[in-house]
Each structure stands twice: as C-alpha cells, then as structure tokens.
C-alpha cells in the first residue's frame, strides 16, 4: 500500500509505503489517499478519508476573577479554544448546552452576590470543564456629601471656596472649574481654599478606597454692589458734595444728574464727589469686568429747603432662590405713602402699576421687582430692587424600561422631565438619600436576578422628587 497526505493521488510508484498506523494528533486534521498494488495484479482503486481530531475545549477564563468588590462589575468570559461558545448560569446549577449563551459581559450590580458557572462548547469537541466564580458586590455606602463654604450664590467680591467637612481625613478630593465631572484622573487635587473672582461652577468628588465616591457641585456668580450715596438722599439747607462708593473692590461707577439712566454710553464716570447745589436726582450703577452690573439706584436731593424723603420700599421675603411659589409684599415705613412697581426691568415712575396686593411669583419663574414709594409734597424714595428665582419640585423619576418580568438582562435608564436633574438610587430596598449611589450610567440587571430599584431626582435649589420604585424580575428564560 502506498499513501499520500498532501491531496495528490498515490500510485504503485508514487507515495509513501505504508508500514504502520498513521498518527493524527489532537487539534489537527489529515486527508489520506491510498492505493493497494501487487506484482502481476491490477492496482486497486484509490480510496480516501479525512480525519479531524478536535480534543477538549479549554477552560473558561473569568475577567475579573471572583471576589468582593465595592463597585458594580462587568465579568468577561473567554476560552483559549478558537470558535468555542460559552454557556453559563447564575443560579448555582451546572451549565448545559441549553443554558444562557454568553454574548456580552455579565453585569453584577451593587448590593448583589452572584455565583457564575460557565463551560465552553464546540461542535465535535469534548465539552470544557465547569468554571465557577463568586462575586460579592458590596456597594459600600458613600460618605456624607462634601460641603462648599461659602455656599453657592452671588457675591460682590472675590471669595475663596473651601471644600470641607464631613470628609474623612484620609479621603482625597478632586475638583473642576470647567463643568466637567471630576475624578482622580480629571481635575485638581484639593489642598487649600480655591480663590475665584469670576462666574464659576465648581464640581468636586471625595474618593476613599473601599467607599463609593461622593459628589457636590455649586455655581458662583459675581455682581457689583450697588453704589451708596453719602450723604443719603434728603433735604439740606446747603449745597452738598455727594460721595459715591461700591463695596465691590475695583468697581467703577457711572452716573447721571439729568434724570436719565446711566449706561456704558450715557453718563459720566465717577471720580470725585458730585457738587449738588440745586434740587437734583443722581442715578448711578457700579461696573466691574467679569461681574454682573449692579442695579441702577438713585438719590434725590433738595437744597435750601427741608422736604422729607419717602422711605425706600422693603420686600418680604427678600430676593433669592425658592423652591415654592412666592407672594411678595412691598411696604414702606412712611405713613400715607403709595408704592408703584415694575416687573419688566424698567424703572418705576408715577405711571407704573400701583401696588395693592402681594406680587405672585409662580414655579419655574425668575422675576425682578423694582419699586418706589411716593407721597404728595415729599421726595420720592430710592428704587428698591429684588430678584426672585422660584424653582419648584423636581419631576419624578422615569424608569426605562419600566419594571416587570424580562427574559434577558436589562439596562435601566433614569430620566426626569426637569432639565439638569441628577439622580440617587438604591438596589437594596432602602429609601434613596443625598448619600445614596449617584446615577451616572444605565443600571445593569443580569440574568436570574430580582432587583428593586428606588430612585429620587435632585437639582440644586429645588425640592427633590418623590421616590420612584420599580421591580425587575430577570428570568433568564
């Protein structure tokens, strides 16, 4: 017998003479052609056979390996056997050819302990050994949220912002000033108060090994303080030298004495005291680069005769940010005085609406009220200005997809109709708080898990939403 293994045809004069069994090792294939011949006889027909020797599928590799983790894990399964498929279970049973087919990383969320069993399969190969790893994802609670001091708001001068208690002494704090999300590889390591002299949004994260990160953010703005008149408006027997000043360091002041509003192109830049030797009204505002302009304020002077000045109106509550609708009352301490006001940014005068009832400021509104008080034969008051921002309650959390029973792993996305809202959530049945896990990406729920997600939506200066709850039963069938 002569035979070949390269696909060519053997003959009585070509090919290898068969002397013993032909070995075909594991993980190889061999195509054999053979012919039999004998002197004086006609050679046999050529016969052929193809042999593919497979072997056993290599063991499954788990990445990362089992253990205890403080953050959600994405477990990748692989095998060194090319072309093999992997089947796995999460309920402790041994995987079979009917078990879940591995196609993408298995997500193990917070507050879950999962045993993953897996083995490799390949047609005509021996099934791989069962691999087992246990993952305990603790979801350690984040420490309390860092505190920004002074609190976010609008300031008249440069400030230094401290990021402080209740951060543990061995935690590291990183911050950004450009609005990006801070992290150990993105941001500046906090070591001392941060000086700022222009509008900034500070975002900070406190990080400690074995703990979930804790985030805080706050927006800071700067506005020049309105000018102050010395002496104040009023009646004087003699001419007065009126000094204008602003408590904002480095601010300049522009003013008018003809009753018009000062602006970048109207009025004079204040440099020396203003001589007032006739009945006159001075209007002024303060300016500083990088700051919002101050409101325009005015003072009226009567020279040579005493004429009383109506007291400047007072707002209650004071201007600021509120989470609920506000009814603003306007009063003056001058008996018999009337008040006129505007809400369109214009200066109030005798033709403006007469105040008679509280000014209502509804939810999701920013409104600036200007008011001035009048009394017959008196000098009108200075203009009072207050800005109100009424936020409201953050809209409820929307879960996509909603809770229910699903045969495949789910990635749950949290949203809210309130723009700029952020979310905190739990997966252990507890009520979410300011210290709960911060939602940054879809919450992954793997096969053979029942999980209850509770979530609340937050926004700085707003009341947090009610707690939303959805239950997901991932059957794996």
Task: Walk me through the structure.
By secondary structure, the protein is mainly beta. It has no helices and 43 strands. Strand 19 (200-207) and strand 20 form a beta hairpin. The chain is elongated, with a radius of gyration of 40 Å. The mean pLDDT is 89.
Describe, in short, the structure shown:
The protein is mainly beta and 477 residues long.
Mean pLDDT: 89
Strand-pairing-aware structural class? mainly beta
Radius of gyration: 40 Å
Largest sheet, described in full?
Answer: 5 strands, mixed
Number of helices: 0
Number of strands: 43
Helix content: under 10%
Cα shape: elongated
Task: List low-confidence stretches.
Answer: none
Strand order across the largest sheet = 6-12-11-8-9
- Give the percentage of residues in beta strands: 35-45%
Head-to-tail CA distance between termini: 57 Å
Features:
single chain, 477 residues, mainly beta, five-stranded mixed sheet, elongated
Fold blueprint:
Blueprint: E1 2-4, E2 16-17, E3 28-35, E4 47-53, E5 60-63, E6 67-69, E7 73-79, E8 85-89, E9 100-101, E10 106-108, E11 112-121, E12 131-137, E13 147-149, E14 153-155, E15 159-164, E16 172-176, E17 188-189, E18 194-196, E19 200-207, E20 214-222, E21 228-230, E22 234-236, E23 240-245, E24 252-256, E25 268-269, E26 274-276, E27 280-287, E28 297-303, E29 314-316, E30 320-322, E31 326-331, E32 338-342, E33 359-361, E34 365-374, E35 384-390, E36 398-400, E37 404-406, E38 410-415, E39 422-426, E40 437-438, E41 443-445, E42 449-458, E43 468-474
């Amino acid at each position: 017998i002569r035979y070949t293994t390269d696909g060519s045809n053997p003959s009585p004069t070509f090919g290898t003479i068969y002397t013993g069994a032909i070995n075909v090792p594991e993980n190889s294939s061999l195509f054999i052609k053979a012919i039999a011949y004998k002197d004086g006889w006609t050679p046999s027909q050529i016969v052929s056979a193809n042999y593919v020797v497979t072997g056993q599928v290599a063991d499954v590799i788990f990445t990362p390996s089992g253990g205890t983790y403080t953050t959600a894990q994405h477990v990748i399964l692989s095998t060194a056997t090319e072309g093999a498929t992997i089947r796995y279970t999460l309920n402790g049973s041994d995987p079979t050819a009917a078990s879940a087919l591995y196609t993408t990383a298995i997500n193990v969320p917070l507050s879950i302990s999962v045993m993953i069993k897996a083995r490799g399969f390949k047609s005509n190969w021996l099934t791989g050994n069962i691999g087992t790893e246990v993952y305990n994802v603790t979801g350690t609670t984040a420490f309390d949220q860092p505190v920004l001091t002074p609190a976010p708001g609008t300031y008249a001068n440069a400030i230094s912002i401290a990021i402080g208690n209740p951060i543990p002494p061995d935690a590291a704090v990183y911050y950004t000033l450009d609005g990006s999300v801070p992290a150990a590889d993105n941001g500046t390591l906090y070591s001392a108060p941060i000086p700022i002299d222009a509008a900034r949004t500070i975002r900070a994260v406190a990080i400690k090994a074995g703990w979930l990160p804790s985030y805080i953010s706050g927006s800071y703005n700067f506005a020049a303080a309105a000018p102050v008149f010395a002496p104040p408006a009023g009646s004087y027997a003699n001419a007065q030298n009126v000094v204008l000043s602003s408590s904002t360091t480095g601010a300049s002041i522009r003013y008018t004495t003809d009753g018009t509003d000062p602006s970048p192109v109207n009025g004079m830049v204040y440099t020396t005291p203003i001589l007032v030797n006739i009945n006159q009204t001075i209007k002024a505002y303060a300016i500083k680069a990088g700051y919002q302009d101050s409101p325009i304020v005015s003072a009226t002077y009567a020279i040579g005769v005493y004429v009383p000045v109506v007291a400047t109106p007072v707002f209650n509550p004071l201007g600021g940010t509120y989470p609920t609708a506000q009814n603003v009352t306007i009063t003056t301490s001058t008996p018999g005085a009337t008040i006129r006001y505007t809400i369109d940014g214009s200066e109030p005068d005798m033709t403006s609406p007469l105040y008679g009832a509280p000014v209502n400021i509804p939810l999701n509104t920013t409104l600036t009220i200007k008011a001035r008080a009048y009394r017959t034969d008196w000098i009108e008051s200075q203009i009072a200005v207050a800005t109100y921002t009424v936020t409201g309650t953050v809209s409820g959390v929307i879960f996509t997809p909603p809770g229910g029973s699903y045969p495949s792993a789910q990635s749950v996305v949290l949203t809210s109709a309130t723009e700029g809202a952020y979310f905190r959530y739990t997966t252990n049945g507890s009520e979410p708080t300011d210290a709960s896990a911060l939602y940054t990406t879809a919450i992954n729920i793997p096969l053979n898990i029942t999980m209850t997600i509770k979530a609340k939506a937050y926004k700085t200066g707003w009341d947090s939403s009610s707690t939303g709850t959805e239950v997901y039963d991932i059957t794996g069938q």
